[in-house]
Amino acid sequence: MSIELIKKAEKNHVLNREEIISLLKDDSIDAALFRAANKVRGKYMGEEVHLRGIIEFSNICKRDCLYCGLRKSNENLERYRIMPEEILDLAKKAAEYGYKSIVLQSGEDSYYTVDILQNIIREIKKLNVAVTLSLGEKTFEEYKAYKEAGADRYLIRIETTDKSLYESLDPGMSQDERMRCLKDLSSLGYEVGTGNLVGLPGQSLESIADDILFFKEIDADMIGLGPFIPNEDTPLKDVKVENFQMSLKVMALVRLLLPDANIPATTAMESLNKNGRMIALSSGANVVMPNITEGEYRRMYAIYPGKICINDTPNQCWNCINGKIASIGRTVSKELGSREKIFAL
Ligand code: 5AD
Ligand code: FES
């Protein structure tokens, strides 16, 4: 039964809610699911892996998400802001290594005004790379201003489609507002990335199925998802979880349903399994987002514990990831890796 469902999804890229739930529940079919997702990835995205260099430029955040180490109530975290010149410097070095895409990520930090961000974006665009922003919830006008400065893509995870769970884990935030952000970004012509956390306390498999269907419904260009990893310095520190396999399954299902979306093998996956990103690349993913931040900042961007590469340099990560990708018989793309819609929904 499950194997039939996987075959169907591999061919038609459609599954209904009950079918997704039954596949999430059945752990006897995991290997077949990962193989099918890998095949679909090969058919639509080819053997190239896109690298996006990520600059974590500020760990200051005005929000208080219960799961996140950057939450404002976390007083154990030493905070930092990287100044624009230094951000540009990191981006330049990354472009020299060969990155074709730069991601600017931070907590929700109002220090970086529209003017400051526009300048950074304009300067980075001169390097002929794609620019992706991951700065959280902003107004339509702000998103518009970043776009006008040249930003190409925006990442904002929905985290969970379960409205009451979302609003209880993200105090003071509203899911409607999150949806408004996604809608605005899309109407402004961004390539839009979203995603979820897998294994949040109180999250049901039913709601994970809804997350997957939501990504398909909005035809997300990028879907980044990963396991929830409890952080000692947050209220969710005592949650006991083992989410690696489940997040891999969710990712594989996302690939089956969105065959031509860009899907990263996320850092959180590798933090739970030392070969996590390569396993993900062989189970549907086609993107990796190596950290190109330098020095102490890497350790200080402590969203969750056990984050990989905190003692490495951007150069080490570049060499490491290129080697790993070659070792699984894939190649690193020299293109921007924009989303190309091949499969009509
Ligand atoms: N474990 C794993 N991922 C997390 N994120 C936040 N907190 C955690 C955690 N404890 C993810 C969220 C956010 C992204 C930047 O990091 O999904 O969108
Ligand atoms: Fe950073 Fe491997 S990717 S050391």
Question: What does the model show?
Answer:
The structure is a single chain. The longest helix is centred in the N-terminal third of the chain and has 16 residues, at 30-45. The protein starts with a helix and ends in a 13-residue tail after the last strand. It has a single domain, classed as TIM Barrel, CATH 3.20.20. With 345 residues, the protein is an alpha/beta fold. It has 14 helices and twelve strands. The chain has helices at residues 2-12, 17-25, 30-45, 84-97, 114-125, 140-149, 163-169, 175-187, 205-217, 244-257, 267-272, 276-281, 297-300, 314-327; strands at 48-51, 53-58, 101-106, 130-134, 153-155, 191-194, 197-198, 222-223, 226-227, 264-265, 287-288, 331-332. It has a six-stranded parallel sheet with strand order 2-3-4-5-6-8. Strands 10-11-1-12 form a four-stranded parallel sheet. The model has no long low-confidence stretch (mean pLDDT 97). Helix 6 (140-149) links the parallel strand 4 (130-134) and strand 5. Helices cover 43% and strands 12% of the residues. The structure holds 5'-deoxyadenosine (5AD) and FE2/S2 (inorganic) cluster.
